[in-house]
Structures are given as structure tokens and as C-alpha cells.
Design goal:
about 130 residues, three-stranded antiparallel β-sheet, 6 helices, about 65% helix
Length: about 130
């Protein structure tokens, strides 16, 4: 498994924005997160600095502006984090995880149909 930096939930919100819009500058990140969170610009800039220090973001200085790109692929991060989640909470038992999800009321018929489709595709590949 790839070693990824530990990213807090707040830092993840910054990463989500950068993954969606990279390359993106400090002002763009700040403007968007000030609107969607209760964070101050200073808090957002601190989160960005932490992500750079952790190696999750890289930056380039263009004139007077810093432009950020992810150093970690979103798909790789989510893959590792979901595996870690299943391992931690379900002792690695994906069946227990899916069963737990399906027993909750937090899903729709389209969710279940999507799962069926994914499983069918996966079964067809093997």
C-alpha cells in the first residue's frame, strides 16, 4: 500500500477543491472556502501551508501568486483511505461493510443498482 500523508478533515476539504480545480491559486481557494465554510482566510492559508509541508500539495510561484496542484492523486488517496476504513472498522471484511451499508436506510434503489452493476462488471473481469 502506498504511504500517503495524514490529512485532517479540514485539509481534505482544501484537497477536494484543489483536486477539482487544479491548478488553482491561493486567492481562488480562499474565496471559495470562505463561502462554503466558516473559516477565515488565515485559517485556509494555514491549511494550505500544512498540506504543502505534508507533501500533499505542490506549488509554483507565478508573479505574486502561488498556484497549487495536488502531489497526491485523488483516486489513490480515496483507495488507500477506503481500504484503511474497511480494515479498521470491519476487520478487512468488505462483505460486512457492504452488508452494514445496505441494512441502513441511507441508500436508494439507484445506489443498489450501481452496486449491482459494479459487481457484475467486476465478476465479468475475473
Amino acid at each position: 500500500m502506498v504511504k500517503l500523508p495524514q490529512i485532517s478533515e479540514a485539509e481534505f476539504e482544501v484537497m477536494r477543491l484543489v483536486w477539482d480545480q487544479a491548478p488553482v491559486n491561493t486567492n481562488e481557494i480562499t474565496e471559495q472556502l470562505v463561502q462554503s465554510t466558516e473559516w477565515s482566510p488565515k485559517t485556509i492559508q494555514t491549511l494550505i501551508r500544512r498540506l504543502v509541508t505534508k507533501g500533499a500539495l505542490t506549488y509554483e510561484k507565478k508573479g505574486r501568486v502561488f498556484v497549487y496542484t495536488p502531489a497526491v492523486e485523488e483516486s489513490e488517496y480515496l483507495k488507500v483511505k477506503s481500504s484503511s476504513f474497511v480494515e479498521h472498522y470491519f476487520k478487512g471484511d468488505i462483505t460486512a461493510f457492504v452488508s452494514s451499508y445496505l441494512e441502513s436506510d441511507a441508500h436508494s434503489e439507484s445506489d443498489i443498482e450501481s452496486l449491482r452493476s459494479i459487481l457484475s462488471e467486476r465478476t465479468g473481469k475475473q
